[in-house]
Amino acid sequence: MEDLFSADGRGSEYIDQAIALVMTYAPKVLLAIITLIIGMWLINRFVNVLDAKLGKKDPTLNKFLCGLTGAILKILLLISVASMVGIATTSFVAIIGAAGLAVGLALQGSLGNFAGGVLILLFKPFKVGDVIEAQGFLGSVREISILYTVVDTFDNRRVVIPNGQLSNSSLTNMSVYDTRRCDMTFGIGYNDDIDKAKSICKRLIEEDERALKDPEPLIVVGGLGDSSVDLTVRAWTKSGDLWPFYWDMQERVKKAFDAEGISIPFPQRDVHMYKTE
């Protein structure tokens, strides 16, 4: 009987301790959960407002800054919730710091991409909507995120390029200026009239409204090839008209040369046969 009462005494003691723990930590846990839910809602709300404001002014900075702001605020919220439950904030921050160091060493490439994204946003070599050529791809910039830049190519492919590579290598931005120069080369035969061919090219350029008057077009003999006299033709257009103008000129020049009797030679070689006895 004494053992039974003794066991009952220890059982009631455990129950009292459990009730004390629940009374002590239950309000803190409940308050922490409420704080976490409300805090996440407020952070998402703030990020959405920031996204709406920046989306109109600077789409390039928008995604990057919203993602970074949301991540920082959520980390601060988790630290605050942990301190409310009773976890020592200093030790929690130390653990996060140590984990951050370990993750940083393991993800050096990702940190390089992050730094590259910051440099891109600071110096702005390109922005959302620009047409760039980088890392062997040509297309329109769709999005600049924290780690990567998304480019849509003109044959409807989506390319994801790490920001570290973009910030550490050369790229071509084709949307900086409103006008671009269209360079073309047309070969004519050595027996053809050079002045006549030049006048045909000049006439075709003047008839095309996409060709700008200033700067004036340039039509010169650019080289003497093995089988042709090469005419270098340079005309300025609006950036959006460059390739349509180039393609149309290729067809129109060919038709005009055919109509005027000017040949466009192809590579050929004369072979002389000698009979030896």
TrEMBL record:
<protein>
    <recommendedName>
        <fullName>Small-conductance mechanosensitive channel</fullName>
    </recommendedName>
</protein>
<dbReference type="InterPro" id="IPR006685">
    <property type="entry name" value="MscS_channel_2nd"/>
</dbReference>
<feature type="transmembrane region" description="Helical">
    <location>
        <begin position="20"/>
        <end position="43"/>
    </location>
</feature>
<dbReference type="InterPro" id="IPR045275">
    <property type="entry name" value="MscS_archaea/bacteria_type"/>
</dbReference>
<keyword id="KW-0813">Transport</keyword>
<dbReference type="InterPro" id="IPR049278">
    <property type="entry name" value="MS_channel_C"/>
</dbReference>
<keyword id="KW-0812">Transmembrane</keyword>
<feature type="transmembrane region" description="Helical">
    <location>
        <begin position="94"/>
        <end position="123"/>
    </location>
</feature>
<dbReference type="InterPro" id="IPR006686">
    <property type="entry name" value="MscS_channel_CS"/>
</dbReference>
<dbReference type="Pfam" id="PF21082">
    <property type="entry name" value="MS_channel_3rd"/>
</dbReference>
<keyword id="KW-0997">Cell inner membrane</keyword>
<comment type="subunit">
    <text>Homoheptamer.</text>
</comment>
<dbReference type="Pfam" id="PF00924">
    <property type="entry name" value="MS_channel_2nd"/>
</dbReference>
<feature type="domain" description="Mechanosensitive ion channel MscS C-terminal">
    <location>
        <begin position="184"/>
        <end position="264"/>
    </location>
</feature>
<comment type="function">
    <text>Mechanosensitive channel that participates in the regulation of osmotic pressure changes within the cell, opening in response to stretch forces in the membrane lipid bilayer, without the need for other proteins. Contributes to normal resistance to hypoosmotic shock. Forms an ion channel of 1.0 nanosiemens conductance with a slight preference for anions.</text>
</comment>
<feature type="transmembrane region" description="Helical">
    <location>
        <begin position="64"/>
        <end position="88"/>
    </location>
</feature>
<comment type="similarity">
    <text>Belongs to the MscS (TC 1.A.23) family.</text>
</comment>
<keyword id="KW-0407">Ion channel</keyword>
<keyword id="KW-0406">Ion transport</keyword>
<keyword id="KW-1133">Transmembrane helix</keyword>
<feature type="domain" description="Mechanosensitive ion channel MscS">
    <location>
        <begin position="110"/>
        <end position="175"/>
    </location>
</feature>
<keyword id="KW-0472">Membrane</keyword>
<keyword id="KW-1003">Cell membrane</keyword>
